[in-house]
Amino acid sequence: MKNISACAAIAVLLCTNTVEAFSHVNGKGSIRCSTHLYAAEASKSRRDFFSVGIVSTGVAIASTILLSPLPCVADVSDGNALPQGAAQFSRVLKVRSQLQSVAKRVTEQPSEINKAEWDKIDDFLRTVYSSGEDMKVIAKGIYDPTKKTKADEDIKLLQSLVQVAQKPISKQDAAGFGVVAAKADNLFEEFFDLLRDIPDEL
Question: Which residues does UniProt assign to the signal peptide (predicted)?
Fold first, then answer.
């Protein structure tokens, strides 16, 4: 082991002396040696820079993933969306409320309603008609045969009233529309009464 250490020390001294001698003999040798050392240091610096850069980038990406808020995706399993039946029920309630507001506007302020607004009311009737489809889904939860039959009849009559309501709208007949809207509201009320015995999970 001592012999190996001694040989290593001699080799280092020889290398050092050779470089020094070469630098004295030829100035270019010094330049080449310096250039070589500079290039080695520059290469090491670049490696260190890229290593630090890669680590920093990885940390930044990981931080972004961990800290960024998750997208608001409705998931029934997480309780963020209404289950089948409840969603339809919510829409039907909303349509009924809107119909009441429209009927009040038409009957109390008929002189303020222009043709453009009458056209919008006509478009709204399509929404009322579509609510009948939601009511059909809800009615599937009615297990009493008598109530189920009554619910189906109310739904069919409601959709028929929507078609009837188009006539007073085309004539801009506020009173006539008010009568049809009142009948439709009563059908909504009857339908909701039939749902009182439906299990809560629906």
Answer: 1-21
